[in-house]
Amino acid sequence: AMALCLKQVFNKDKTFRPRKKFEPGTQRFELYKKAQASLKSGLDLKAVVQLPPGENINDWIAVHVVDFFNRINLIYGTMSEYCTEKSCPIMSGGLKYEYRWQDDNKYKKPTKLSAPKYMCMLMDWIEMLINNEDIFPTRIGVPFPKQFQQVCTKILTRLFRVFVHVYIHHFDSIINMGAEAHVNTCYKHFYYFIREFSLIDHRELEPL
């Protein structure tokens, strides 16, 4: 079923962004491989997210932020045809939660957007940040900026909203596509990771 999901995603150019890749031979590529290997080993997810001995916490967070961006982007891409201006005129998580978009460019004030428009703005914004060498440096010896973890908190908080929207408004589609186990695993992994490093304010977690 997952192969089918992936096929559906790759057929939809507009929603699927090219994956951000780690350069082979770099420290972060090695860390990414280590993280993937422990995921596949069937270890408890709570153990998988822990910082490996001797590794730099910012490198570890950077690897996971990029990986979660890739995976959540893929999850949303698979079901984006069910999330339209008509079905989701507001970016929400049930009746109690409405998410407004704000950035430093076009939307200086928190603005109501439809869910698909919000998702599009969100993915573009994250892509811009993770490709910015001043924020996510990839060259060896180049230090992370002081505000690195704050930026990651903002990225992860907004990515969490994708799960909220998908679970509350599109769960039947996930089940119909046979992607439920895949989405649940990704969510658990994400949840244990943000809890391990206290990266999201617990109030943001209330909708799920």
Automatic annotation (TrEMBL):
<feature type="binding site">
    <location>
        <position position="88"/>
    </location>
    <ligand>
        <name>Zn(2+)</name>
    </ligand>
</feature>
<keyword id="KW-0808">Transferase</keyword>
<dbReference type="GO" id="GO:0016301">
    <property type="term" value="F:kinase activity"/>
</dbReference>
<dbReference type="Pfam" id="PF03637">
    <property type="entry name" value="Mob1_phocein"/>
</dbReference>
<dbReference type="InterPro" id="IPR005301">
    <property type="entry name" value="MOB_kinase_act_fam"/>
</dbReference>
<keyword id="KW-0862">Zinc</keyword>
<feature type="binding site">
    <location>
        <position position="170"/>
    </location>
    <ligand>
        <name>Zn(2+)</name>
    </ligand>
</feature>
<keyword id="KW-0418">Kinase</keyword>
<protein>
    <submittedName>
        <fullName>MOB3C kinase</fullName>
    </submittedName>
</protein>
<feature type="binding site">
    <location>
        <position position="83"/>
    </location>
    <ligand>
        <name>Zn(2+)</name>
    </ligand>
</feature>
<dbReference type="InterPro" id="IPR036703">
    <property type="entry name" value="MOB_kinase_act_sf"/>
</dbReference>
<feature type="binding site">
    <location>
        <position position="165"/>
    </location>
    <ligand>
        <name>Zn(2+)</name>
    </ligand>
</feature>
<keyword id="KW-0479">Metal-binding</keyword>
